[in-house]
């Protein structure tokens, strides 16, 4: 059915693409719609079908920053747990070509041409308009990075934060301006939640001999003074 794939500014490996705590979402939906029942065992879909469109639209979630609200989750059926778990990538279908073992759903992935596309900065929506225009100081930069690391990763949080802070600081500049901190923060967030996961998909695709193509979109906006794309 599918012969070619285009991934634009994201993939299923991005932290914002998969809901890691679907039961929490189910609980909030049940509480706000009155569709109560056993959180693990009961299917609330029949109850939700009886609600009006406005009642469903009125459901409000408060997801952690940089993470999704309503999003696909690993249910073991549509999305297999073996694909998203810590199983060695060499053991799943995406690398082995095995159409019977774990990850067999992706066994044909290398047979499809893949074009993955990125812009220079993928994180504009993560900052406010004021932050984008005027920048911010080091303290706010650190606060944003700590929030991202805490919500996107599970282990070695202090080490990850220290590494990001070190690698994305321009040590050749004796004094960093508010705009320098803004630009560095945009780069960290772009690489962390979009660029690195997307390039990983391309790498996995190429390891099995798939034909991969990379596109970098570098359009310069009229507001380039504070939108450095």
Describe this structure in words.
The chain has 9 helices and 3 strands. By secondary structure, it is mainly alpha-helical. It folds into 2 domains: 19-71, no CATH class; 75-217, no CATH class. Strands 1-2-3 form a 3-stranded parallel sheet, with helices on one face. The longest helix is centred in the C-terminal third of the chain and has 30 residues, at 178-207. It is globular. It starts with a strand and ends in a 12-residue tail after the last strand.
| Outline type | globular
Q: Hey, roughly how much beta strand do the residues contain? A: 5-15%
| pLDDT < 50 stretches | 86-93
Mean pLDDT: 84
Return the string of H and E elements: EHHHHHEHHHHE
Helical content, roughly? 40-55%
| Secondary-structure-derived class | mainly alpha
**How many helix segments?**
9
Instruction: Let me know the number of strands.
Output: 3
Spatial gap, N to C terminus: 35 Å
Family: Belongs to the type-B carboxylesterase/lipase family.
Keywords: Glycoprotein
Protein name: Neuroligin-1-like
Organism: Diaphorina citri
């Amino acid at each position: 059915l599918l012969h070619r794939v285009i991934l634009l500014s994201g993939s299923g490996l991005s932290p914002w693409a998969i809901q890691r705590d679907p039961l929490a979402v189910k609980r909030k939906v049940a509480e706000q719609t009155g569709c109560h029942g056993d959180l693990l065992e009961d299917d609330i879909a029949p109850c939700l079908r009886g609600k009006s469109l406005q009642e469903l639209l009125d459901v409000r979630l408060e997801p952690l920053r940089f993470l999704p609200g309503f999003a696909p989750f690993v249910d073991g059926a549509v999305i297999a747990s073996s694909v998203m778990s810590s199983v060695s990538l060499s053991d799943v279908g995406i690398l082995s070509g095995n159409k019977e073992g774990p990850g067999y759903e992706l066994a044909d992935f290398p047979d499809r041409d893949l074009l993955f596309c990125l812009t220079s900065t993928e994180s504009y929506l993560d900052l406010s308009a004021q932050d984008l225009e005027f920048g911010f100081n080091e303290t706010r930069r650190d606060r944003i990075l700590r929030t991202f690391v805490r919500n996107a990763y599970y282990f070695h949080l202090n080490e990850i934060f220290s590494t990001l802070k070190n690698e994305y600081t321009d040590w050749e500049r004796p004094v960093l301006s508010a705009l320098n901190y803004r630009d560095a923060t945009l780069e960290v967030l772009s690489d962390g939640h979009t660029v690195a996961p997307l390039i990983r998909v391309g790498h996995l695709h190429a390891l099995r001999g798939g034909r991969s193509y990379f596109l970098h979109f570098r359009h310069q906006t009229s507001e380039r003074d504070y939108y450095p794309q």
